Amino acid sequence: MMRVTRPNLTAALCVSLSLCGCKSPWGPQSNDATATLQPARAVDSTPPLKTAFTTGECVHKGPGTDYEVGPGKKYESIGQVPMETFKAGDTLRIHYRPEPYREKIMLGGVGRADAPIRVCGIKGPGGELPILDGEKATTRKELQFPFDGHQVRGLIIVGWRRSDPWQVGPEHIVIEGLEIRNASLPYKFTDKAGNEAGYSAPAAGVFVQRGKHITIRNNIVHDNGNGLFVGSAGGEELTEHVLIEGNYVYNNGSDQNYYHHNVYNEASGVVYQFNHFGPPKGGPQGILGANIKERSAGVVIRYNWIEDGAHLIDLVDSQEARDPNLASPTFKESWVYGNVILRGPTASGSMVHYGGDSGMLDTYRKGTLHFFNNTVVVENSHHKEWEATAIFEISTNDENLDSRNNVYMSDAPHPNRPVLLLGKRDQVVSGVATFEGDWIREGIDTFAQGNVKLVATAKGIDACTRGKEPGFEDLEKRLFRPTAQAPFLQKGVALPYPADHALKMQYVKHGKGEPRPAEPSLTLGAFAGP
Questions:
Q1: Which of 43, 74, 290, 494 has its C-alpha lying 20 to 30 A from 299's C-alpha?
Q2: Residue ranges per domain, the chain?
Q3: What is the mean pLDDT of the chain?
């Protein structure tokens, strides 16, 4: 995560979760300010996990001012709205129009749980979302960025408002119902001083630096340097309680390097649910960035569709938020359940990476990845020969994998295109894994083979069920719900997890969720039986 530091008193600053909706409309930068951070603090990284479903309609409610933008409205452009004054209950409602809004947004006010500051889109006649386009975007001159250099970091920016006391940061911010695109090189924009500027390489469609209770819901986010980037510099700048829900995020990242992703977060308390994560940006070298890269504590990834990426899920060590996150017990407990996790026809890195990537082993997660009731599919029939596909890569033997009730499917297991449960890094296979109640396609091997050093252990593999046909509705059409012929109907083991992680929902293709039907015993995978 790129470091952003707090200034001294004379320098400029360089730098959620009360509503949940399951419905959606779709099927190293340099530092310009340096100073010593305040001592880091431990935080309660566990966000509220109860879900109150909403339709996501862009309607102004409660106190505050209704700012309505669009053709024939009081405000014809976003830049006419005094966003720098937003307070609890204010709503910026953006009407769809065929022409994109080429304008930037900066949010720094303090909302409340019952009166968030909300930016939302009003759909067009065909359900189209209003488009925010970073190409040739303009910037309202009165906007108060934490630090003017932040303007290059994103199209929608959430951060400290410079006129506020340092202790006051943005809270209860909701961003929903927008198409957010082209905050990336080589596009340029006009900054608040009226000068042309280029985006930084890691610019994001939505960039957050310091905030509490941030909700990003029902948006389409594509063709940005990073799709979503929720950052922290530790201490008082730690972002806490983030909900990412019902979005369609795809084709973000870089075709030149490995450092930009569909989502890149380093915060405390991040919940993903009901999202459709399509492939990140690819190029001649394939897909280089991750789909979801997380350096946060308190990560919950549930009921999503996650398709491709150098890693599809990359859960690694913190950097700027290292001190508060290492002090949080939730850094050692990551939760991934109820997801469809799909490796498409182009092989890349391991699908799920857990542990760390800095080489500073003492800072790695050293905990447990709770991975249950996921449907994992590897479409390796078109993979290159002798190119192995690893489902998991565990960094060290201080990291544990707890796998229960998952379906691990390969469409064409073959010795020349092997699929492995546990892969290698630098010719070493690590990790302490337990498999219980899983269904594993015949031909999927446990460990990487050949010239490797095996230090990993995998308990329970022999007791798991093997088979050739999972009984999906239609494997080729990617319809992964089980039919009555599925061999794993109601064959699941009990889940000894807290109530916050009860398996209550299931994904609906695409970008939606529904209650998971009750069963005498759980069916394996992301979906209940017929």
A1: 494
A2: 1-258, 338-530
A3: 88
